[in-house]
């Protein structure tokens, strides 16, 4: 965790700053290599404003899921079900609006309720029954996707949403894609929650030492439940954004998004073992992945070996492993350089 | 005279700054049962570990039949015929008895063929020699505790053990099982095995041992033949003569009863029928041997393992304490024994740890207030003279004593009425210890009721207005604060009827 009085050098070499350099480098590279001019003299590729907005649009849903996962991972938990819940919520939104004929706002609110319920089931099993989050959400990962497929019988696709709804995913508002405002709003809320409230402080304590948090009288179960319900609710928001962007809701919505979201969180410096991490890191992690994915699609065919998707997966994986390795190496390096000063090393506990 | 079977000369061992053994001499003859006796923390466990090779001694020599043991390690101890039977048998519960025995006795390549018939024959041979009727094909987990101990002993003998260490082997046995074990131990003595027997139960030592060595503060107080020593003499050796008159406790004038326990019990942790009254402004010391149920009692009071019997009254009103949060809301605070796992979160900065239990008080609306937090942290850092570079320093970087002060300050920040302190000075250096003692006296002057659990008898005697002595999950004796160490120790050992003069 960055302390309040860091030396400038340490700040410039902090995880967030290093990631920021990577994001900037990525952007410059794709700007130079991925921008071109077509035969009619129009600029095309990565450097255009439209393309930049595309990057932003595409990163919103995974970004929202990554935001939802940040407090969960800070508690040393995990939620694999967010992508599936996104799919279920998208389908349920279709059901509420199309099949039940409910007004758009009511359908959207009910969808948020479905997300909260989905998170609530995770919360009950994890915080209430103390089951391991990895297994519980692996179960709900299949369950929610299965429910979405059962409801649509695997074939129904909800379309023909009204323009008022599509505005959320396809138009601009105050100069930015509409969903970017939603994303920024949630980023602000999550940043305040994690870095400026006692709830955020508690989730670090739980992540570092769940037993220690319990001995300090923190309501560990209730806090854990809160974070999983928040994750479920934000998945529902992501479902709405996703549906509005594509103009359709299908059972396979958000398939595999949970892995991108987890990658973004961990790339952002949040420890999978809990305790350390920041929302800023998560945002940078999302940016690094989104720019990589979209930038590769803009590269000339020769450079990207005709396989932008595969290349994006490969590069994302390499980036994550590189970040983890860099972290481990710097830790080992630091432990070499720091002499074991007297009084700093915790003395071994004396025998009984 | 032949060389003793096992001979230890001037063994010393330190952990960090704490000296656990300071020049211990000890010898064991063949065909002898030699009891090892001492208070909690006297150094018994460390001495055992030095003998079994789990710890390397800093200085001193070990010799087996006159031949010095160099580079003593668990494997070489095993090869030399030194075996240890622990309180909790360490068998693999899912393997059969024969497999468990084979694991200890057989060696060689992991790829060799297993001769099952030979394994079973070998297992039955050793078990029969011990007079045990145990089928070698049974899974070890299905055996009773004494049966498992027999298997352990069979392993030890099968490996050719000549020195057998037994650490409280009767702790989980019924009286009849105990008697069987005793006759087995006596039989073993006949065969020339030397047995080091560790127990807190004096009557066992008188029934079994030939000689007894008493350890105190990491040094041997003396070795006596069991026939010319009395129980009260042994107790005096254990606690030391210098401790008999306690320094006068601070002139406390305890107020009314704050917390009253009537027959409180918790079946899950073995606390039974505890009744006591804790008055405002007093230190109620809780003494007892390891495993007497002291920490368990504190956990019941703090709602970590809620009571399921009896009643707890706070200010005369019956309360139910089902969780730490409820305990906190009632004004209770618990500084746990295990500072590193429970008392403080070492990865967090000092200031975060200090406010962790009083979020609602310091941050009333749930928003962090860094300024208020830093001020509070500075106040406690000054008040408790915590040595740290800033409130933002990581707690784990502080020394043990300073970490303990943080764990304490965290609860003082909640303005508690009842403070449960569990081993507040364990693993803390001398300076910090006296500072913490001074702090405890200050707190009682402010009217806080303190329940002080400690294995350090001198600490209990120095601070307590009254002393409750626990044994086997119960609280059979409450002694006045001016009791002698011998009286407390006698009560802890279960001899409260015949008090030392």
Question: Can you describe this structure?
Answer:
Chain A is mainly alpha-helical and 352 residues long. Chain A has one domain (44-326): ABC transporter involved in vitamin B12 uptake, BtuC, CATH 1.10.3470. In chain A, 70% of the residues lie in helices and 3% in strands. Chain A has 14 helices and four strands. Residues 339-352 of chain A have low confidence and may be disordered. Chain B is an alpha/beta fold and 501 residues long. Chain B has three domains: 6-243, Rossmann fold (3-Layer(aba) Sandwich), CATH 3.40.50; 265-331 and 416-495, P-loop containing nucleotide triphosphate hydrolases (Rossmann fold), CATH 3.40.50; 345-415, no CATH class. Chain B is elongated and about 70 Å long. The interface between A and B is large, with 35 and 50 residues.
Q: What is the strand and helix layout of this fold?
A:
The complex is a heterodimer of chains A (352) and B (501).
Chain A (H helix, E strand, L loop, with lengths): L7 H5 L2 H20 E3 L5 E3 L3 H26 L7 H18 L4 H25 L4 H20 L10 H8 L1 E2 L2 E2 H19 L1 H11 L1 H6 L4 H27 L10 H11 L11 H20 L9 H30 L15
Antiparallel strand pairs in A: 1-2, 3-4
Helix pairs in contact in A: 2-13, 3-8, 3-9, 3-11, 3-12, 3-13, 4-5, 4-6, 4-11, 5-6, 5-11, 7-11, 8-9, 12-13, 12-14, 13-14
Chain B lengths: L5 E10 L2 E11 L4 E6 L5 H9 L6 E6 L2 E2 L5 H7 L1 E4 L11 H9 L10 H14 L15 H14 L4 E5 L7 H16 L3 E5 L3 H7 L2 E6 L2 E7 L5 H9 L17 E10 L4 E9 L3 E6 L5 H8 L7 E6 L2 E3 L4 H6 L2 E4 L3 H5 L6 H6 L3 H4 L7 H14 L16 H13 L5 E5 L7 H16 L3 E5 L3 H7 L2 E6 L2 E7 L4 H8 L9
Parallel strand pairs in B: 3-8, 3-9, 6-7, 7-8, 13-18, 13-19, 16-17, 17-18
Antiparallel strand pairs in B: 1-2, 1-4, 4-5, 9-10, 11-12, 11-14, 14-15, 19-20
Helix pairs in contact in B: 3-4, 3-5, 4-5, 8-18
